[in-house]
Design goal:
Helix content: 25-40%
Strand order of the largest sheet: 1-2-9-4-3-10-11
Distance between the termini: 142 Å
Number of strands: 32
Strand content: 15-25%
Largest sheet: 7 strands, antiparallel
Low-confidence stretches: 1-8, 34-50, 58-107, 678-689, 728-783
Shape: globular
Radius of gyration: 43 Å
Number of helices: 18
Mean pLDDT: 77
């Protein structure tokens, strides 16, 4: 065969390079076959065996051939094997040459299609990993919310959140349609991502009944025992001589039966081994935070729209989210609706409560009284709760009190709560994320951590009175002309007529109740007890019309079931209403003198068998109406009542404490927040306080300007008199007769130039003094 085109050999060489593994295999497996064909080979060597095409291609690349060739030069032998080899004469007949170009094109097209498909799949997977999940809005200041979302991969640099506000023509109008389809120019603001992080947490069970055998399940199934056993079995991957090698055959090898049956201590935590690298740890998704600031400055607007990075709907178009603006204390923008819930967890009842709040209550903000997810040490359940609550909390800003299942649950929590949810502590001059306050509409909301010592204990590293001082200073700053209503929030109740958690937080009541009473707090919102109860105004366990109304709403749907069977009898005199069911409440701030409360039952549950640990299992009945049901067994006096309402009317004449707190109002920043704002992270200061300061400065400036103008006028008058005194030197006075010294006979002749100056006003009198000391005075000042 005569090869005339060297390009073919170059292409053959490239193909050989792409398939080098094939040639290596061929050299190893066909040695004997090659020996039989030695006479037909170009090169025969005991030291190296190379494919014929590769030999020819290498030879040509070294410059042995330009164009075609008839014979192979002996230099091939030197190039390939370093010594001479035998040659042979080619036969005169040859087979038809193989067409390589079409095969080459087919290979490229197939490879291209495969690579494109792989790239598209990879790109789609990357986009999915960057798609926002678990979105919620956390209240972080008077006129600020922090939008929080997660992704499976970290964001690139300089990503931001865009947001804009608008005025709706009606309550039912979709603000997204109004902003997106607006004919006028929409002003979009930018919220920079100020935090993006992920955390690690050990996989634990914080209590015996928490996940393996809950009393009320769904929509997320409990953790199965065989799953935990599989995670704990390190023998499936660790070497036998490794220190963390552990054979687990059943769940009893992870958690012994005694853990479930032991009564004291009943609060205990079991964790998978810390050295279990393939199951003992949980890695959170990447959590991103950005601030949406000063939206209340958009006067007249009642809703805002925001857009997250990589957020698209099912059609691949930009996804817009919205929320209602909270009312400002500086304006009369109508009533403010606050939804109140607590101890939610993640069950079918929880889902029903969230849906009711979103579709029926339609609040401006949600106050959660604590115990949010009931993850109870099993970290992935923080993700499942965020998914369950996204529909509500991504459209309504929420602030969450610190509950025992959030911060102190047998040492198994707090990291997730602290990383995922923001509070307004930095904008209320607090030193702890669990002590905070903010203004919403005509109300001032202040939070006290139920799990912070009221006195300095043996192992404490901080002085406990620091937070008492903070509480007093915060309430002293309240300006009740701007925020006439004060709402206190803390998880564990001070007044509760249920044997569950009865007087559990008594030390805190003895420490802080007198402070709240002194500053005229109107209402206290609590959770912890899985039931609903409202008190009369009370102080020191006695009814007091100037006392605080305590409301317990720990009935948000958690898996532990209702506490309706443990009401104390008789009902205390300060207890107004109580029921062991599930629901949520709402505070509606109407104006400066009226505020109303409404609790609505959303579900009843009934015994439905027992769990693996012989605990009663609770479930809802299909088709049961929340307006006419009854939780069995609820021993309260009102088991069938579906709604409880109360109206607060402010009467400052009867209660002098309601007049307390005439401070400047607004926010007070911590020094860390001030530093951040100097760096451009947040707004420079509280706008209200800044406006007040500017007003005072302007008033002082006007006073100073007026004083300056008056002084200038007096100076001008003095200069006029001085000019006259200088001009009088030009006066021609008559010569006095030494002999006739008549005091009243003096005559004054004034030059024309002096009259031309016209410096003497009508009514002024010229006085002449000996020695030329002449003065001009007003006639009214002449004595």
């Amino acid at each position: 065969v005569r090869y005339k085109n060297s390009r073919s050999f170059v292409w053959i060489f490239k193909q050989q390079q792409r398939r080098k593994e094939y040639f290596l295999t061929r050299m190893m497996t066909t040695t004997n076959d090659r020996r039989r064909r030695t006479s037909a080979s170009v090169v025969s060597s005991s030291e190296s065996r190379f494919p014929r095409a590769l030999v020819l291609a290498l030879f040509m690349m070294r410059g042995g051939v330009s164009g075609g060739f008839e014979t192979v030069d002996e230099s091939v032998d030197e190039i390939i094997v370093g010594r001479r080899t035998s040659f042979y004469s080619r036969p005169e007949y040859a087979s038809a040459p193989v067409e390589l170009e079409p095969t080459r094109r087919r290979i490229q097209r197939s490879e291209r299609r495969r690579l494109i498909a792989f790239a598209d799949e990879r790109e789609e997977e990357d986009e999915t990993h960057l798609k926002p999940e678990q979105v919620h809005l956390s209240i972080s200041g008077d006129e600020e919310v922090t939008v929080v979302w997660t992704t499976r991969e970290p964001l690139e640099e300089d990503f931001e959140v865009r947001y804009a506000c608008a005025k709706r023509n009606s309550e039912d109008e979709d603000v997204i349609d109004r902003v997106v389809s607006s004919k006028t120019q929409t002003t979009w603001h930018i919220g920079k991502v100020f935090e993006s992080s992920s955390y690690t947490q050990q996989m634990c069970l914080a209590s015996a009944t928490s996940l393996t055998a809950p009393s009320m399940g769904g929509p997320k199934t409990p953790v199965k025992r065989d799953v935990l056993a599989k995670l704990a079995n390190t023998s499936s991957w660790a070497d036998r001589d490794a220190s963390n090698y552990n054979v687990v055959n059943s769940f009893k090898d992870v958690v012994p039966d005694a853990w479930f049956t032991m009564e004291k201590p009943w609060e205990k935590t079991v964790c998978l081994g810390y050295a279990n690298a393939n199951g003992g740890w949980y890695r959170s998704p990447f959590i991103h935070k950005a601030k949406i600031k000063d939206f209340n400055k958009e006067r007249g607007f009642d809703a805002c729209v925001y857009v997250l990075p990589h957020d698209e709907d099912e059609n691949g178009e930009t996804k817009y989210r919205s929320f209602k603006k909270r009312g400002s204390s500086n304006t009369n923008e109508g009533e403010t609706i606050l939804s109140v819930m607590g101890d939610t967890g993640q069950t079918e009842v929880t889902k029903k409560v969230f849906q009711h709040v979103k579709d029926v209550v339609k609040p401006h903000a949600v106050i959660h009284t604590g115990d949010v997810s009931y993850a109870d040490g099993f970290a992935p359940r923080w993700d499942s709760f965020a998914e369950l609550s996204e529909a509500l909390f991504s459209s309504v800003p929420v602030v969450i009190a610190s509950g025992n299942h959030d911060v102190v649950n047998n040492g198994a929590e707090y990291t997730a709560f602290e990383k995922r949810y923001e509070t307004p502590w930095r904008r209320s001059a607090s030193y702890s994320k669990n002590f905070w306050s903010f203004n919403v509409g005509k109300a001032h909301v202040v939070h006290i951590d139920s799990y912070s010592s009221v006195s300095t204990q043996m192992f404490d590293g901080a002085v406990a009175d620091t937070f008492q001082t903070w509480l007093e200073n915060d309430l002293a700053r309240v300006n009740r002309k701007q925020t006439p209503w004060i709402i206190a929030v803390f998880h564990a109740p001070w007044y509760n007529s249920n044997s569950a958690h009865y007087k559990e937080n008594e030390p805190q009541r003895l420490k802080y109740e007198q402070i709240l009473y002194k500053f005229g707090v109107d209402v206290a919102l609590n959770g912890h007890v899985h039931s609903y109860e409202r008190s009369y105004p009370v102080y020191n366990n006695q009814r007091d019309e100037c006392g605080i109304t305590h409301i317990v709403v720990g009935d948000g749907g958690n898996y532990e079931g209702p506490y309706g069977s443990s009401w104390m009898t008789p009902q205390p005199s300060w207890s107004a209403f109580r029921e062991g069911s599930f629901g949520a409440g709402s505070l509606i701030v109407h104006n400066d003198t009226h505020m109303s409360w409404k609790w609505e039952r959303n579900a009843c549950v009934h015994p439905d068998g027992t769990t693996d640990l012989n605990h009663t299992y609770w479930s809802m009945l299909d088709g049961e109406s929340a307006s006419s049901c009854r939780t069995d067994p609820d021993k309260s006096e009102n088991p069938y009542v579906a709604v409880d309402m109360h109206v607060f009317v402010k009467n400052e004449n009867k209660c002098e404490t309601r007049k307390m707190g005439t401070g400047i109002g607004g926010e007070k920043l911590t020094f860390t927040e001030i530093d951040d704002e100097e760096g451009g992270v947040a707004s420079s200061s509280n706008d209200q306080y800044r406006i007040q300061s500017l007003t005072v400065a302007l008033a002082l400036s006007l006073v100073c300007l007026g004083s300056t103008c008056y002084a200038l006028w007096k100076t001008t008058q003095a200069l006029k008199r001085a000019r006259f005194a200088v001009s009088v030197c030009a006066v021609h006075r008559t010569t006095f007769d030494d002999e006739d010294e008549e005091e009243n006979g003096v005559e004054l002749n004034v030059s024309n130039s002096f009259h031309a100056a016209q410096d003497v006003d009508e009514g002024d009198e010229v006085l002449l003094f000996p020695g030329g000391q002449n003065r001009i005075t007003s006639s009214s000042n002449v004595m």
